[in-house]
Records
---
Amino acid sequence: MCFAMKKERQHIQSLMRALDILEAVRDSSEPMRSTDIAAVAGLGMATAHNIIRTLFARKYLAQDKHNRYLLGVECMQLQTGALNCFSRVRDAVGPVVRKLAEETNDTTFFGCEANMSLVCLSLCQGGGNLVVRPEQHWLKLLHCTGAGKVILAEKGIDWFAELAELNPPEKIAANTITTVGEMRAEIEKIKRNGYALCMGECSEDVSALGIPVYDKHGEFVGALAQSIPSLFIEAGRIDINERVKILRTYAEQISDQL
């Protein structure tokens, strides 16, 4: 109890408020007026205005022609900097992800774990349309995606239990697994099969298939995954075992470069 209280005192209130403002703008579907930002962040107008003005001056916020706020160029630079540590892996997986999407006509994804979150390093839509700078919608979806499940299997059930305690998994669809007990059985199945299959866990009509990728030294790097219409699997149009073989062939191409 004392440690928790001591840790809480270390928080800098003004910084916490600035982060609340940035997160409010980030989570909005459209640019925001300062009054709306203050309301969402739970701040008084004068306090919010001072922080917003500072963030704008430092280019962490920008304005549109109606003087509404959106994230600024410095926020984009932060994302770029955060992903730079994965640049070697990203360069290796990009061409492979695109080629796999072209061959199968299914959206292909390469993800890895950072700070207990699922980070997308490369995303290519079915047919080979590369998404150059994907928005990181998957950060909290380790528990219900093909790539995320592969990562959880590598990390182990104790790691997932810690993650679930810090950030309880969201029940996104009827099939979404959220409990430690269910995930323990799922991890055992993934290790047994060598791949993860999520049937309608992140979206009702979409399933995901993921396999682990290792470097030349056998170290786990991340997961190669694809999104597939559930109907195609249920109707037998896509054979999972055959698709796993294809993914493993491409995973080997990535491993050869790392």
---
Amino acid sequence: MQLDVADSDLGDRLGAGGQAVIHDLPGLRLPDVPGPLVYKKYRDDRAPRTHDMLRLVQLREGLTGADRARLDAIATWPVRLVCDGPDLRGVVLPRIPDSYFQPVTLPGTGASKKLVREVQHLFVDPAIGRRTGMPEVTREQRLTICRDFAAALDFLHGPAMDVVFGDINAKNELFRLGPDPTVMLVDCDAVRPRGAVTGGLQLNAPDWEPLGRTTLNRATDLYKLGLFVLRCVLPPGSQTSTRRDPVPGLLDDAGTALLTRALSPDPHDRPAAGEWRRYLSLALGPPAFVFDPPGWADLPVPMPRLGPPPVVELVLPDLSPVLSLDVPALDFEPPPLTGVTAPATPPATYHPLPTPPITLPGLDPGDPEPVDLTDLFLPRKGTP
């Protein structure tokens, strides 16, 4: 769970913030972590407690193989600690994949640079984005990003992880475009297990504070998920990044109801991340492609493209060797039947049955005159 990282192991400096500096680790590979790694080296007196980070590393190591793969697909999760005795110096993380970077032209200088696509880019006026080279994002892509973020948060809130992400903001979620737009969560060393007592408070970014003064918990995650959906789907502009109230007509009636509940001051009324995932899945495609059995968590990201099952070629066994076998002829003759005489069959004789003549009462059979049936069927005059 711990590694020794020397200065000679460090590659390029990839980024820096108020808490830490990120360095590439070009020569390091770990058997349980796919892809390249980076080192997040904390500044003096800014490192979290060793125990808190150790708990996150152990949480990942305790997952099943499938759940660990899902976590690695959606988050730059701490995988190893770097310590100096009992003191935490930094953590080793998966490197952000190239698909989450965008080549841009820096204004004023004209220089080219790769920037990570932070969610805040979805809130910027498209005219500004075009000047730097940021692509325009369609409404369908925005809904897909919201769906995949909801799916990722649903996984973190689920039984496999049971954590509070906490600091959801415009920089801690990245997005990618292409055939399968999706999201990745960063700064996951601030995540805390639900109900755990930690050495420091989880923080809120400006304009992402939850309603009221409260410790960050699952309900505050769900409030910030509502802000995420609202701000991603709103037409980008100067006020997009600060909006907090539901906008009529932004979504259909079901979506507006979810958004109203998510941004409600009542924390118990906020829809779970799984409700958002199901709603957005239905909004993006036909219901026939949504599979949500009870107790089964969806693939958070990337969401699969479902289609008809593959055609499987049925291979039958080759029966030609059996069919070509030569069956040997019988090497004997049946014995002749002797002393048995079949009884003679007499010829069939036809004997017609006698047919009695039909004689109507009161009539002479030899009378050649036509028969008048009136007297037979009609009563005579004077009779009742």
---
Amino acid sequence: IKTYMNKSLILCTLAVLSFSCKQDPSNQENQQELTTTDTIATPMESENSTGVTAGVFDLNSLPFATADVGDFPFINLPKGLEAMNKPLERKFDVCYFPIDGVMTAVEGKLYKVNVTNAKGETYSQRYFEKSMADYLKSIGASLIYDGEISKESYANYAKEDPNKGGEGDIGYAGENIHFYLIKTKDKGNIYIQYTSNNAGGKLNVLQEEAFVQTVTKVNAAKISQDLTTNGKIDLYINFDLNKATITADGKKIVDEIAKSMKEDSNLKLSIEGHTDNTGNSKDNLLLSEKRAQSVLTNLIQQGIDKTRLSSKGWGDQHPLASNDNEADKAKNRRVSLVKTN
């Protein structure tokens, strides 16, 4: 029996060696190449460990949509659903979209909304998401990303988003984002993303547009034009903090006022100061009067006849915007020129 077992062991060993020798190394390499090729998906089709649709975003490779996409914001909510609050709408703003899994800023015309069920209806996450996906595909939208972003991606952009925490805000870690892009020849690139849970949904639409600068230098020609057309112009003349002393930058604007008045010898002006509502109204009124008088005095020093000038302070009585934030307060701190002839 021992001899028989030894012979069997020898025969098995020889068989294994023979099988190994008959294997073609080139076949092994081909098999390895085939396996590797089979596991590589095309862009926008591979999935990472979190189930996020991934791939390298290439705008040029996307096809143009041929369907009529309508007018901004290009998409209506499904029947039975409505805006929870007044949508956020901006002629120009920024919105962040998960391009290659990284929240990336895109600028243009913006629409953001929280979605809920209409009165008498029940909200369905499946209904909202399927309605969005089916419609977007029907008009030629390309799915760019479908999944969550990382905590790192959220932390990197959150502080830069001016609308973070506002209406229709999308882009939190752990929030599944469906992101589509419609590439059109007549209306440019349209970015659409939405997200949902059992309680409600959110929708963002941005029509990509380049920023157009509308701020122009205040000069004598602009002052004369506005006074002729509107009889008034609001100017932002800088003063030292809580004082009536005109800064160097402010002096340049006063010089342009003087130039305008010299070019039109019949022009008469009321110089009127305004402040925001910081502090008490009595102090604001006094400060606005002093600042208006400071501009008047400077114009007289440049040769403008004092009979053509008057000054008045309004304090915080006539704001142009709310005083709820620093941007609006800055709009209210101004000097108005009012034509009096």
---
Amino acid sequence: MAAHIGKQYLDGEDLLAEVLERTMQLWAKGRGPTHNVNGYLVNSMRNRVIDEHRSPRSQVVGIPDRYEEHAVHGNPEAEFELRELRDAIDNALMQLPYASRALVIRVFVLNQKVGECAAITGMSANAVSLRLSRAKRTMRLLLESDPRVNERYAA
């Protein structure tokens, strides 16, 4: 059932383990379901998949197909464009304060959740979200002002 519910978003075993762990934590606190536990677990798994689907991390868009197509065929111009784009992103990332840069890398590169970052850094989840929002805005402004990006992708 967990594999069916998780489908392409989450591994069924991981999903079930996470939901069981949360349920056991609730029971340890004297809360949680006292009857119809199967239904509770199924609903919890569905809710977890919905949360993952709505997460901004699941909405990440990769490099446009036209770049991958050209790079695979060894098109030097497309490879040069990709290298310039990567350099521009690296440059913008390095201009962020260390704490913001670390959060951007944790969330968007390592796919950690805001809650995980909050636990690691000792910040509240709201503070982590706010810092990420500011970092994304700063990176967007830096990239818009970078001629390597602006010339090609100006809207």
